[in-house]
Design a protein that fits this description.
The structure holds two protein chains of two kinds. By secondary structure, chain A is an alpha+beta fold. Chain A is 28% helix and 22% strand. Chain B is of the alpha+beta class. Chain B has helices at 24-31, 76-79, 88-95, 105-118, 124-130, 142-155; strands at residues 3-9, 12-18, 50-53, 56-59, 72-74. In chain B, strands 2-1-5-3-4 form a five-stranded mixed β-sheet. In chain B, helix 3 packs across helix 6. Classes of the chains: A alpha+beta, B alpha+beta.
Chain lengths: 793, 160
Amino acid sequence: MSEVIDNPTGIGCSVKRKEDYRFLAGVGTYTDDLTLPGQVYACFLRSPHAHARIERIDTAAAAASPGVLAVYTGDDIAAAKVSGLPCGWLITDVSGQPMKEPPHPVLAQGKVRYVGDHVAVVIAETYWQAKDAAELIEVDYDVLPAVVRPGDANQPGAPAVHDSVPDNVCYVWGHGDKAAVERAFAGAAHVTTLEFANNRLIPNAIEPRAAIGQYSRADDSYTLYVANQNPHLERLLLSAFVLALPEHKVRIVAPDVGGGFGSKIFLYAEDVVVAWAAKRLNRPVKWTAERSESFLSDAHGRDHATKAELAMDSEGHFLAMRVTTAANLGAYLSTFASSIPTILYATLLAGQYRTPAIYAEVTGVFTHTAPVDAYRGAGRPEATYVVERLVSTAALELGLDQAEIRRRNFIREFPHATPVGLTYDTGDYEATLAAAMRLADVEGFEARRAEAATRGKRRGLGYSCYIEACGLAPSNVAGALGARAGLFEAGQIRVHPTGSVTVFTGSHSHGQGHETTFAQLVSDRLGIPIENIDVVHGDTGRIPFGMGTYGSRSLAVGGSAIVKALDKIVDKGRKIAAHLLEAADTDIELESGVFKVAGTDKGVPFGQVAFSAYVPHNYPLDKLEPGLEETAFYDPTNFTYPAGSHICEVEVDPETGVVEVVSFVASDDFGNVINPMIVEGQVHGGLAQGIGQALIEQCVYDPESGQLLSGTLTDYALPRADDLPSFVVDTQVTPCTHNPLGVKGCGEAGAIGSPPAVIGAIVDALKDLGVRDLQMPATPQRVWQTIRSAQAA
Amino acid sequence: MAVKLSLNVNGKAVEAEIDPRTLLVQFIREQLHLTGTHVGCDTGQCGACTVHLEGRAVKSCNLLALQAQGAEVVTIEGITPANGELHPMQAAFKESHALQCGFCTPGMVMSAIDLLNRDPHPSEEAVRRGLDGNLCRCTGYQNIVKAVLACAAGEGASHV
């Protein structure tokens, strides 16, 4: 790939990040840092009840409160014909019927359906005035019973979240060959069965969501500044589906965004309200979430209840897998909610293995809880947990070594079509497993276990060999599966007259370092210094189009679009250079920033070609337009399949249940790596979130009242520096075969692979005490109780 | 009801009339427009709002502005050299890739400087314990710890 071997800012170099200065110096611009002239403030009144009928709302006192400009309720939204929030993915039920899509109003209409649901909004001159006035709104609620757990929602007698969906079932979705699976189970020598919950998580990006709506009477246009991962998608949803505005009148700016992890993909009610109210009041309207609002109203993640079975022959070869999952969708369908526990979950159940038959049935249910949608990994951590916990448990039951059972079943030939609809293009699962085992010093483990035992501690090793489908997505495939949008990406390269470059990308960076990685692609290809390259993202007013950043797609799809645009730049540059050098353009090649006549020392530097394009005095004007700017749209032909092996070593104190992660090794195959430093950082962050899920994070709703009990950072355990070990991170490379960079994506791998490795390690540590399985999160209390119950049994 | 506040911020005397409910972080961000200090929570948990008050790291969302009456406050803008260079701790963060989205970063840097001021040569464990009051959701902390240790090794305590 690399044409410039000595380029220190090219592909494969750990270039220090271009974006760091502004963040370190405190001169970044996050949404809440913006203050627009005439800006006023919105405060949302939220439901204190999980389920209630709104009998009466009296806003008079609030409206008369000092500084208040307006108080709006669901009636105002309905009168203004503001539509509800749409869901972007249609899932078809096993009956052949479309999923149930009850309305998702931006302000509650008649009923509230979760604690934190939006009841009214106050807009005032100052933040304090809005907040004070919101407390003056009187609401009479007729409190109704609530249901919060996925396994309870479709039981007889459960209260209905929506009158139009009395059984709370959004869809029952089946995937795979059910009959083949039944046959395989009937003939199996051994079946491993597990039942578990995949614990509900609250994303908690450290920057709370924020939005400022602005309206201009001059040209009847809207600008929405918003902490968001995909501004063009936000524009599409806001303009076409909710406010019925033409797209060219709506500009979305997602400036510096302080982490997303999925939670800032979605169009939220607050975004709509500030944009809509900005026109009504002809003032910019700002809303910034308090952390308690983030807990209540950001889309949550995971929350599955699953029964999973693995059928094997007597030697531990996998014959079939059967999975039944109840997935909590929350009270309303968030933007991609329907696709996460289906398309992004069941399609991954083959893992790294040759399992010939798989069937999954997923029941998506409504509950009186916040909407559940994509959170780092989105469906794939849940699938990996199913596969790897089954495999680890099967090894334990059959008396097989944890590595051996995996090796016996690894896919070793590519391309490989799984029974759940994906075709893996490439991989080398043996390579990542072998590297992880070496780095984890598996050979020395028994000695460490024995040493720990002398101190009364129990050591265990846990394995996880994960796979993910990233690089979302071939638009035609996604469309056939129910996606209501395309999933390509756009890139634009603007070469300026003096040869510096601005890259416009539809991807969005909120921590991933695109301003550096994407600039490396350009530096590598054009042979120009990285200081001469800037990357612009997050503004529909400046970027041609885009689908944004999620699903580890930015480099594989957005980076590929940039490469395609670079191809066009180089093509045109060669023609200009050929003219300047009086040579045939087929003889021109770009080498270290110079267009050269092949086999000669004749050449013109890139900057001179750029200058000629803008000052075309000596230029082939009869054949070529002036200027040097190109745009490309790239639609992938397949998903990418990052994969790897994680090995966790824990030490458990059986007297207290305290688990210490003493070592964590990740060997990952992300295809080609553009910036190893950034990739390593992405893995660290993902591992922290995965280990957080396995050990301490848990969203808890009271099952009776539906109150969110883990609603603050004192009640919800976000990993802190002293909760985590130092990770050992390694990469192995099999380049992706179908995108021009050979890259696969690295953003989610840590969160996907790590939870079953941690739980497997704890089970391994406690297996002699009779412990066979353990639910996440493995808090000291839960570990202690699990030991006690195992011993009692 | 407005009350008078006078204090020193980043070496400059500041006088203002404020609502007595105003938090120190709100005063810094909204009245002084020093937006490098961030609000990540409102319960003193995340540390994104960390500034130095009389030379010690404090969470400015947990203090009323009035509690800084007459005091010296230093924010991330105050430790950043004016010439476009970086404070040694900031430089160590960049060198070690100790930041991703950057939102927790100013608070993390302010805490880390305070940590080294109190313990110029901490162990890894001491750094992890010392940063317990600052949440980062992006980095898994490993490179932050590495940066603080590198700063301690290279520069000694980095006084403000």
